[in-house]
Amino acid sequence: MKIVDLNIKKLNNLQPYKMKIILGVPIEIKSGLNIISSLKKEVFLFACVFLCIVNVFSQESRPAVEEVWFQYYNNSKITDKWGVSSDVGYRLKEGRFYDLSQYFMRSGASYTFNPMFKITLGGAYFKTHFHGVGKAEEFRPHQQLNTKHKIGKIGFGNRVRIEQRFINIAADAGEPAESTFNFRFRYRFMFDFPLINLSHSNKERKLSFVVGDEILFSAGKGEFFDFSVQNRFLVGPVVKFNKQNKLFVYYNFTSVSKDIPDISDEYGILWLGYKQTLDFRK
Known about the structure:
By secondary structure, the chain is mainly beta.
């Protein structure tokens, strides 16, 4: 394993600090100077990585980001085996709070067999509105399996989820209300590549880079829900503050295809999320 030591001089007072680079291993910055605060470093790294991602996916014909998602995740440990997994979110479907938007709440009871395998049974409520007027609501029970693995220092995870979607569409402009039902099958994999340690004193504070993909199949009865396929390619930075808290910014490139009617589309989503773990075990 090759180790390279670089002495870099600070421009204003020519005071050196050392950056140790270990090839093939996450980089750890060790500086004797307080050049910038830890928070400033995290914000700067986030901005650099995300701007590179958006630049790669941007196209002249349409904006790189057409939707913005905000999401908070909570994993509460009740016992060594049992817990509650919840998340809430708000989605700007047209990029503005006033236009087409969606909010949701989801929660479920989880059981952990071991550090690698966990199952969850739960449900969700979704509400879609346009100009402040409710247009559709959805009740969505789900069953889920999560697995976590390590490939050297790289994290790898799988998620399989089955959803039963009960959708009620409000009456509009003389059109009657409509109720539909469909099953949705989802599979997602994620790779977590560790990049650098953000703090010399706190070994848990790290920056990593995530790459993943999720495919969603829907099948059921209804004019617009007979069958559809959706794919979400996910990429972006994650800051882990400690074992209980992490922040992520993903670029979600989504492609959708439906057979009734024959519809296909592609668009970009900016996805900001915060994940928190609470421990209520005695």
